[in-house]
Specification:
Blueprint: E1 11-15, H1 17-20, H2 27-45, H3 56-61, H4 68-80, E2 84-90, E3 96-102, E4 113-115, H5 118-127, E5 138-142, H6 143-146, H7 153-166, H8 168-171, E6 177-178, H9 179-185, H10 190-202, E7 206-212, E8 219-225, E9 238-239, E10 248-250, H11 262-276, H12 278-283, H13 292-306, E11 312-315, E12 318-321, H14 322-330, H15 334-346, H16 354-377
Parallel strand pairs: 2-4, 6-10, 7-9
Antiparallel strand pairs: 1-5, 2-3, 7-8, 8-10, 11-12
Helix pairs in contact: 2-4, 2-7, 7-10, 11-13, 13-14, 15-16
C-alpha cells in the first residue's frame, strides 16, 4: 500500500496556547506536540492510506532527525506535562491495541497509561472522538515541514515560532517581525537558536535577502519564511526597495550597512534615478542649461554619498553624519534636481571646486528651494 502524497499547501492548526502562553516552554516540545497531533489526525482522516502499521511511537520517530535518546526525553516530557496519554486494551490472540491521545490542556488526573479490559477497550474505541483542530487563536503549521525528515525537532519548533509571529490570524497584515524578538521568545538560548536558524536556512525554509530602505539607502538582512523547501533560494540577493511581505522577518541583530557589492550600488543608483525622474530630465536636456553628461555626474555623486562606508561626509567646511547626508540625497526630486543643475550652471565660470560646490548645493537644496521657486515666479 502506497503512502498518501502530502499536499505542500496543507496545514495543521496548532493552538497558540501551546506556543505563546507557556504550556510548552521549549521549541522541540512544541514541534513534537504538533507532529503527533498531525499524525493522529492523519490516522483518523485516512486510515486506509496511513502507513503506520506498527508502533505509533516509532512512526513518529521516523519523521525526526534527532537521536533516540533526545526523542525519548521529549516524548516523556509531554507525558509528564499531562498532554500525551496512551490507552492499552487487549485484542484477540494475546495482542494489544494501543491508542494515543493529545490533550489541549494539561491533564494530571488521568494516568499516562490507561490499561483497559477488552470490553472497556471496545467501548472506548466506539466512544472515542476524533481530534478536533482549534477554530480560533491558532497558527497554521505547514504539514510538509512537519513531515520533513531532514529537520530536527528544534528546527521544526523554530519554524512554528516564526510562523506564529507572522500568522495573519494572530497579528494582522503588515506586522513587522524582528529576529531579536524571536530570540527572546526562545528559552533554549542564543546558541541553540542560531543553530536552528542556520538549519532552516540551509534546508530552504528561510530565504535570506539584503534589502534597501528607500529612505536611507542602507541595506539590511531580511528573511522570508516558506511553507515548503525553496530549492531556488539564493544565499544573498539585493533588491532596490524593501517590500514587506506576510512572512518577512527583519534581522535587527545586525546594524544596517551601506551598499557593499556592485549589484547593491546599482540598486541605489536606480533608486536615485527613479526619485529624480531621470528619463524626464534627460529628455529635457536640449532645452536646458545642463548637459546629459552633467546629469550623469550628479547622479554618480549622489550615489557615492549614499554608498559611502565612512561614518561622516565632508560637505564644504561642515562634517555631517553619512546617514544624514544619504537621506538628504534620497529626498531630492525632479524639480529640486533641475534647480541645483541650473543654479550651478549659472555660476560655472567662477567655481574652483566644482564637485564640492555641487555636493553643497545638493545637500542644501531643501532649504533653498523655496527661494528658487520665488525667483522663477517673479
Amino acid at each position: 500500500m502506497t503512502k498518501k502524497r502530502i499536499d505542500p499547501q496543507h496545514y495543521h492548526r496548532l493552538s497558540n496556547a501551546h506556543i505563546r502562553k507557556g504550556i510548552l516552554n521549549r521549541m522541540e516540545e512544541v514541534a513534537l506536540y504538533a507532529l503527533i497531533g498531525d499524525l493522529l489526525s492523519w490516522m483518523d482522516r485516512s486510515p486506509d492510506n496511513c502507513p503506520c502499521k506498527g508502533s505509533f511511537k516509532e512512526w513518529v520517530y521516523g519523521y525526526c532527525k534527532d537521536g533516540r535518546k533526545r526523542f525519548n526525553r521529549i516524548w516523556k516530557r509531554l507525558q509528564e506535562l499531562g498532554l500525551l496519554k496512551m490507552v492499552s486494551a487487549p485484542q484477540h490472540h494475546n495482542n494489544f491495541n494501543y491508542f494515543y491521545e493529545l490533550r489541549e490542556r494539561p491533564d494530571m488526573k488521568t494516568p499516562v497509561i490507561q490499561n483497559m479490559t477488552a470490553v472497556q477497550g471496545r467501548k472506548y474505541l466506539a466512544a472515542r472522538q476524533k481530534p478536533v483542530q482549534p477554530d480560533k487563536a491558532y497558527t497554521k503549521v505547514s504539514v510538509s515541514m512537519l513531515l520533513d525528515r531532514r529537520l530536527t525537532l528544534h528546527e521544526k519548533g523554530l519554524f512554528i515560532l516564526i510562523q506564529s509571529e507572522v500568522c495573519l490570524e494572530c497579528n494582522g497584515a503588515g506586522t513587522e517581525v524582528l529576529k531579536s524578538r524571536l530570540l527572546k521568545k526562545c528559552t533554549e538560548g542564543e546558541t541553540s537558536f542560531d543553530r536552528a536558524w542556520k538549519g532552516l536556512k540551509a534546508k530552504g525554509y528561510l530565504e535570506q535577502t539584503r534589502e534597501m530602505e528607500a529612505a536611507t539607502g542602507r541595506f539590511q538582512w531580511h528573511y522570508t519564511l516558506h511553507p515548503s523547501p525553496c530549492r531556488d533560494c539564493k544565499e544573498s540577493e539585493s533588491i532596490a526597495v524593501k517590500k514587506r511581505t506576510v512572512a518577512d522577518i527583519s534581522d535587527n541583530t545586525r546594524p544596517a550597512s551601506p551598499a557593499k557589492t556592485v549589484e547593491e550600488r546599482a540598486a541605489v543608483k536606480a533608486q536615485i534615478k527613479q526619485n529624480v525622474r531621470y528619463d524626464e530630465l534627460a529628455a529635457e536636456v536640449d532645452s536646458s542649461v545642463y548637459t546629459l553628461r552633467e546629469l550623469d555626474e550628479y547622479i554618480q555623486l549622489m550615489t557615492e554619498v549614499v554608498c559611502s562606508s565612512a561614518p561622516t561626509v565632508r560637505i564644504s567646511s561642515e562634517t555631517v553624519p553619512a546617514e544624514h547626508a544619504a537621506t538628504r540625497m534620497l529626498e531630492i526630486d525632479k524639480l529640486q534636481m533641475a534647480a541645483v543643475m541650473e543654479s550651478v550652471a549659472a555660476q560655472r565660470g567662477g567655481i574652483i571646486n566644482l564637485r564640492g560646490y555641487r555636493l553643497k548645493s545638493l545637500y542644501c537644496i531643501n532649504e533653498c528651494f523655496s527661494g528658487y521657486l520665488q525667483r522663477c515666479l517673479a
